[in-house]
From TrEMBL:
Enzymatic class: hydrolase
Protein name: acid phosphatase
GO molecular function: acid phosphatase activity
A Gene Ontology biological process term: phospholipid catabolic process
Keyword Transmembrane helix: yes
Organism: Wickerhamomyces anomalus (strain ATCC 58044 / CBS 1984 / NCYC 433 / NRRL Y-366-8) (Yeast)
Keywords associated with the record: Hydrolase, Membrane, Transmembrane, Transmembrane helix
EC number: 3.1.3.2
Catalytic function, reaction form: a phosphate monoester + H2O = an alcohol + phosphate
Length: 406
């Protein structure tokens, strides 16, 4: 059942009284890290972010990823992509609830009982599914659903136990103090602190203030990897490259203050988790996404060199969420991930027939745009069709930096 889009404040307050919260943790050892925290900020061009005082300070404490890309515009499809391996052609920030047969990173983590959760600043109560929750004093934007990736997927929200893992920052502090943080977590500041409704200086200052004490916390930093990045850049006429930095106890001291030039995008967040814990894949863009190099070094994975000369990632494609005539794309049930593992068994059993039919019908097209004429400022872009068959690294189009719908 879909949640109420805009519940009244009285209804929210009443539900909050009985909302239950999980504080589950686990200790599943990874090959390069034992905990992965992802923090997203908003809408900032790479150079502006890198030059900010707060983020330049944090860069000295970690590894800057200077070739990290968002996958499209605007915000919401990027959040969707980071947990499910696709954004399904969404080209706006509307209320979306993806069908239950679309799997996410949660399904992968659950195969090994790896604890997971989200921490959303000013989420009114655990498991809230509404469109937004404004500041109750000023009525300014505060919590928004479009920045909460897992709540967009019914494969997560249809299970009441899962909803107990969608928490706010109060619960983050409780879990930190009680040593009950999950091993995978997605963290989103509110619309002020993430820079969406303010400036990069506000977001950078918040990031420094939030992370500086955490980086000194012995419990949290015990083999933890933190990714701090942005959903997208601000100027749609520029290539959609965003600032990203890896922090935490899993970062070797000799690599702090260094720069990694490897190509990554939001799909790398999933592939890195798959590689670290030797998990299956979703059969989507996660399967052939580069893995963060510090993880590749520990797993023997060879990352691809990607030519980004003509890559822009500032447009979408005709697909499921912007054209009612287009079917929901099946995952490639035969895909082999960069870690050598296949697709999650439950995905195979659910999607095999659909994938075979769509493949024979010539359904699959690229979900990334490439510059074909003009300058970046007034580019004409096109979605190029391709399909990764079997192995996730065989298509020559990958050499052009195309993220392929597999």
């Amino acid at each position: 059942m879909h949640p109420t889009h805009h519940p009244k404040a009285t209804a929210i307050a009443e539900t909050a009284k009985t909302a239950e919260t999980n504080h589950k943790t686990s200790t599943v050892a990874g090959k390069a890290f034992d905990r992965f925290l992802v923090i997203w900020l908003e809408n900032t061009d790479f150079d502006k972010a890198a030059e900010s005082d707060g983020l330049s300070y944090l860069a000295k404490e970690g590894i800057t990823l200077d070739n990290y890309w968002a996958v499209t515009h605007p915000s919401e499809p990027n959040y969707m992509a980071a947990v499910a391996g696709d954004y399904f052609a969404l080209d706006d920030d509307r209320f979306i609830s993806m069908p239950k047969n679309v799997s996410t990173v949660v399904d992968l983590l659950d195969t090994k009982n790896i604890s997971w959760g989200e921490y959303q600043e000013h989420l009114p109560y655990t498991g809230f599914e509404g469109f937004n929750y404004s500041n109750q004093e000023t009525y300014a934007n505060d919590y928004v659903r479009k920045h909460n990736p897992l709540v967009i997927y019914e494969s997560v929200t249809d299970d009441k136990e899962n909803l107990k893992n969608i928490k706010n920052f109060t619960q983050f502090q409780e879990d930190l103090e009680n040593h009950t943080l999950p091993q995978w977590a997605f963290i989103t500041p509110n619309m002020t602190n993430d820079g969406h409704d303010t400036t990069i200086n506000v977001a950078a200052t918040w990031s420094k203030n939030f992370l500086e004490p955490l980086l000194q916390n012995e419990y949290l930093m015990n083999n933890t990897l933190i990714l701090l990045t942005f959903d997208e850049n601000e100027n749609y006429k520029l290539k959609n490259r965003v600032f990203a930095v890896l922090l935490g106890g899993a970062v070797p001291d000799e690599l702090k203050g260094t720069i990694d030039h490897t190509f990554y995008d939001h799909y790398s967040e999933i592939s890195t988790v798959e590689a670290n814990w030797d998990l299956p894949n979703l059969g989507r863009h996660d399967a052939n996404a580069n893995v963060f190099q510090i993880v590749a070094n520990k797993t023997g994975i060879q990352n691809k060199e990607v030519d980004t000369t003509y890559l822009v990632n500032n447009h979408t494609y005709v697909g499921y969420l912007n054209d009612d005539t287009v079917q929901l794309p099946a995952p490639n049930v035969s895909a082999i991930g960069v870690n050598g593992n296949g697709v999650l068994d439950s995905i195979k059993s659910q999607w095999s027939d659909v994938f075979a039919k769509q493949q024979s019908d010539g359904y699959f097209k690229s979900s990334t745009t490439t510059l074909v004429t003009g300058s970046i400022g007034d580019a004409t872009t096109t979605a190029m069709g391709a399909l990764v068959s079997g192995s996730a690294g065989v298509s020559a189009l990958i050499a052009f930096g195309l993220a392929l719908l597999i």
